[in-house]
Amino acid sequence: MWGRRRLCRDGDVRRNDATPPPSWPPGVAYLVRPRLERAFPKELVPLLTTNAVPFNPRPSTHPSSVGIKIVSDPSHPAHGQRSLVALKRISRNTLVLPYLGVLHATLTAAVDDPATTPNPLALKYMGGPDPHADSDYDLSLLRLSASDIRNPFPGTHVSIGVDAAQAGNAARFVNDYRGVSGAGANAEFRLGRGEGGEMRMEVWSRRDINKGEELLVSYGKGWWGARTGNSS
Ligand SMILES: C[S@@+](CC[C@H](N)C(=O)[O-])C[C@H]1O[C@@H](n2cnc3c(N)ncnc32)[C@H](O)[C@@H]1O
């Protein structure tokens, strides 16, 4: 069974799961398994796993293939920030590490369908500001339309995300390729499942990555559009 024993809720968000890797920033909790936000609806928990496998995230320790490095190149757009760098050669199409963070859900009334009213069960999870709306470390994990047969809150759109702003692993330091000289995206986010069957985002190599190379993904036009007001 999914349980609070197994998946820590974020009341103690600053607590490290384990000793963080070198160059981990103070004030961010280091995770080795996903953490569930305190307000996460229990009705959505079964969506994060398969029917056959109970939700039981196993620890994923920091891989020896990557390290966290401060960006020292002044021409790099994230100069002075952290980055994720290969410490050894990584072959093409390799799972580098999962993207761990705090799992959270946003429920929104389906105003596009006025005939449908939000499920009363959903109302207790709705309203109030979204604390993840401005996070630079928030990835979308699963979206359900109001009419999706899997949606336990009919009449309500559901969006589940994983936010590593306050708690995460080294994957939170992967930068976007845009503006990094000579570089394209050599890695990408993929939806995957952990050994315990849990749905998660992962960082995969797209090509061979040499020792010393920075791992770079595309955050997507939508990510940048939301920050610059420009979707092109
Ligand atoms: C998920 S974090 C990546 C890790 C970040 N560099 C750090 O030290 O925590 C996303 C943030 O990194 C920076 N960033 C990543 N890629 C960038 C790029 N191509 N151009 C400008 N800023 C970038 C931006 O500040 C962005 O909000």
General description of the model:
The chain is mainly beta and 232 residues long. The chain is 5% helix and 27% strand. It contains two helices and 13 strands, in the order E-E-E-E-E-E-H-E-E-E-E-E-E-E-H. Strands 2-6-8-7 form a four-stranded mixed β-sheet, with no helix packed on it. The site of S-adenosylmethionine has 13 residues, from strand 10.
Q: How does the SSE layout of this entry go?
A:
Blueprint: E1 29-30, E2 35-36, E3 66-70, E4 82-86, E5 95-99, E6 102-109, H1 120-123, E7 138-144, E8 156-163, E9 167-168, E10 175-176, E11 187-193, E12 199-205, E13 216-217, H2 221-228
Parallel strand pairs: 1-9, 2-6, 10-13
Antiparallel strand pairs: 3-4, 5-12, 6-8, 7-8, 11-12
The structure holds S-adenosylmethionine.
